[in-house]
Each structure stands twice: as structure tokens, then as C-alpha cells.
Amino acid sequence: MSFETGTNIPERDLLNMTVARVGMTLLRRPVPMYKLCFQLHFCNVSQTSVRLLGRKWTMRDSSGQTRIIEAGEVFNQEPVLVPGAVFSYAGQQDFTHPPVSMQVRFFGVDQMNEPFITPPLVFPRYCFTLPRR
Questions:
Q1: 36 Cβ partners below 8 Å, 6+ apart?
Q2: DSSP 3-state assignment of 126?
Q3: How confident is the prediction for the chain on average, in pLDDT?
Q4: pLDDT of residue 5
Q5: How many CB atoms lie within 10 A of CB 13?
């Protein structure tokens, strides 16, 4: 299953999703690269088990470029979360210009095999600030 713009997958708020940790660094190479590292936590707050099948990132940088990345699995997994279960993972996104916004949505199926997509998890603005030296 994949999420494509225009498909009719219902949005369901089955998970409490949070950005647990985030940090950004500037790698000074021949071409500068901004690396945003993060950790996300999910808690199944519904009364049904869910299987996460993939994710869709929407990212914008200071040049105005928007990048959309859609992928199956959640870091090489299709985690099943029973009611009350918690799942966490860490990842990173790379940017050639300073990032200004980022959000992610997850899609999957519930225990009745009904598809869903989560509301977007929007990263707070402070995530896009380089640490002071």
C-alpha cells in the first residue's frame, strides 16, 4: 500500500506522536549540508492494534524548495502497536539549504485491515536552529 495524493485514505488520530529529541549540525564540505537528526515516539492511544506500513515526509528549506519523500516501512520495519504500546525510532534528514519546516505522516492498517493515515506531526520551529558556538 502507498499513500498518493488524491487517494481516499481516511485520516485517523490513533497515535500520540511526539518529537522527542532533535539536533541540527552544519557540515562544512565543499558544499555545505545541514543535517537534522531526530527521535520520534509513538503511543497507540486507540482501542485497536495498528500496523505502520510507511511514511510521507514534507520538508521545506530556506530557498523555497519543497521536498516530498514517501517510503514503505518505518526504518525497515512494519511495527505493530497494540493499544498502549510505544514505538520509538531515530533518523535524520539532510538539506543543502537551512531547513525551515518539516512534517511527517504515517500510514498503515488497523486490526480489521482498514487503511488510515495519521494527522501530520509538525516539527516545532526550534528544531531548525543551529546550536550556538
A1: 22, 23, 24, 92, 93, 94, 95, 99, 102, 127, 128
A2: helix
A3: 91
A4: 47
A5: 11
Kindly report the pTM of this predicted structure. Answer: 0.87
State the Cα angle at 94 between 89 and 98, rounded to 5°.
120
Q: What pLDDT, in 10s, does the model give residues 82-99?
A: 999 999 989 999 999 999
Q: How far is residue 18's CA from residue 68's CA, in Å, rounded to a whole number? A: 20
Q: How far apart are CA 94 and CA 18, in angstroms?
A: 20
Note the pLDDT tens digit of each residue in 112-125: 999 999 999 999 99
- For 93, the grid coordinates are 534528514
Residue with cell 485497536: 48
Rounded to whole angstroms, the Cα distance separating 58 from 25 reads 20
